[in-house]
Amino acid sequence: MRAVVLTGPSRLEAVELDPPECGPHEVLLAMSALGLGDQDVAAFRGRRPVGPVPWLLGRQGVGEIAAIGERVTRPYRLGQQVVVEPDFCCRGCRACAAWFSSACPERVSLGLDRPGLLAEFAAVPAHFTWPAPRAVPLEDLVCAEPLAEAVAAARRAAAQPRQRALLLGADTRGLFLCLVLRARGLEVTVREPITERLDLACSLGAQPWSDGDDEFDVLFDNSGKRGALAESLDGLLPGGTVVLLTGAAAPPDGEELFRRQLIVRGSHGYDHPTDFPATVDALVSGEFAPGKLARRRYSLQGANRAFEEAAVNVAKPWLSYDW
Ligand SMILES: [Zn+2]
């Protein structure tokens, strides 16, 4: 089969590989589209360790079922289109049993810890695939993973319609969160210094932050900057919720938490098996239409350029498998 492999930092090459075998609990997918995200870029650039080169990258994939493992219990049929959930938890530990699979110590990531989807065919565990009809545009489906993270963040914040949310930092992750919060009926204010990002957030229905804005129910810190939270915390209502989307933030001190009765919550990844199918369902129903954030399409011949693009541009590039 044809494939594109990483052969060194920022170097991709087209090669021929043997197709993978379909294990008893797996489905073999004929790949059709792949979204690129931050983790792909980090691996491409050599900033995030992966397996030995040549290595198959690729996490955020959509494909058609080409073979079904003999012990797969889902009622799949050949030719059916599915979206891949690319982080495989163990489904057996205490974290998984408590619906915290994002904290599963056995979790492995497609394209990082095990070979990814940048090939004509890929075998993935059937439990981590979700059906999606062909009527949904591929540029929407390739956004399922970052949207699932945003769905998880909104769930962990207990976000409710008509609440006021303040979002610090509108990089790609922040923009997907903005889209989900708006779709869920929240009023979203964005604090972001880069004009292009702020404009994109406003095109999704957010409003720009201005000095003195307050009475927020929930504050999402996606700034990646240590002091950013403290600068915006006065705008949060008593009893409000702070959600940390990166590990860089400095949470409020105990005196402030106590006096203002704030809730602080970390949000890392998404949890299996709920967030991903909820996201795919929202894409199928049209509740989320993220195509605006994934408008740059490349063929596999342009894979190098697509990865470079993903590193510098906030709008998400994606690949279609026309060889
Ligand atoms: Zn587990």
Automatic annotation (TrEMBL):
Coiled coil: none annotated. Residues 23-133 form the Alcohol dehydrogenase-like N-terminal domain. Residues 174-283 form the Alcohol dehydrogenase-like C-terminal domain. The keyword Oxidoreductase applies. It comes from the Bacteria. One of its GO terms (molecular function) is oxidoreductase activity. InterPro entries: ADH-like_C, ADH-like_N, GroES-like_sf, NAD(P)-bd_dom_sf, Zn_alcohol_dh. Pfam families: ADH_N, ADH_zinc_N. Its cofactor is Zn(2+). Keywords: Oxidoreductase. This is Uncharacterized protein. It comes from Amycolatopsis albispora.
